[in-house]
Fold each of these.
Amino acid sequence: MNQSLSTFLKIAVTVVVIAALLFVVGYQMIDDEITHYQTDDIANTNHPLDTSAPGTR
């Protein structure tokens, strides 16, 4: 019983660590892209901030 529980916990910890690493890497990649897009001159000139209500454009 202890052997199977130990094996299960090792696998569970490994899965949690891998999922956390993938989340952190993915979050960082998305954050970098958002920062890049916000500082992009073409994006700012072609898509100005529109604060009008939907349907009134």
Note: The chain has a mean pLDDT of 83.
Amino acid sequence: MKNAFSYVASIIISVLLVFCIIGLAGTGVAKYCATEQQFRSIASKHGLADKTYSELEKYFRERSSATGIPEEVYMDAIDTDYISGVIDQTIDNGFRRLNGGNSSIELKNEALEESLDKFFNDYADSINYQKDEKFEKKLTATKNSAYKVIGEYCDVYKFGALDSHGVLSKLSKIYTHIDLLMIGAASAILILLVTLLMLNLSVKSETLYWTGVSSLIAGIIGVAPCAYLLATDYFSSFSIKQAQIYTAYTETMKLLTNTFMYTSIGVASFGVLLVIIYAIIKPKNKAQAKA
């Protein structure tokens, strides 16, 4: 090393570089994984529509004793294609909110409404009940309730619950600035690399060494917790009753963890490569510096 000052300064900068590299990797992974396309892909790949259908069937069956409405009145008018479409709508709407928008979805299922109309009218006719304003209000309330339940069960990422508790608005402040955070981390890395180069002008290859070590350490820091989480199957211990929500969250966390781990492996490998290059060219640069 040129002198004690450049050595100590290089250590400090390399430590800062570690955190900046981790920050860039983290924001990059979040940018890649936290998208409508990825969430939709998880929903399709892991059969969340089928799981939601089963949960809805169970719900309406359990409620039939209290409401007097058989589950088939609802479920015969609902299929997995319809549920899949509603799931996609809730995901898109959730991301619009994450991006700072203020939107909502309005569910529509003509087959379901016709099924409820028929059941109510047939039942009223069977007991000679007058179809008055009270009858219409009850029918409308039942339809609205059905849509509400379907919307809640199809909201596999619970965007609605997160929004009502104020969590979504807080996440939005971070999510809408991911690009800015990535640019900030990349800019900080560039500034630190230039500073390292200036500190080691006499032996420029030292910049490769410090950058390589920082990348290697950043990669190891990223890989270690990810490997532990995946090896222990940590996410399977989540306690979520509804199968579609459990699957949505566990598979999303696995995607994030796997992506960050592989990114960290890439960063660590890049660091090793830089150290190897430094080891190869070091003798030549040392000799030039002495000359």
Note: DSSP finds twelve helices and no strands in the chain.
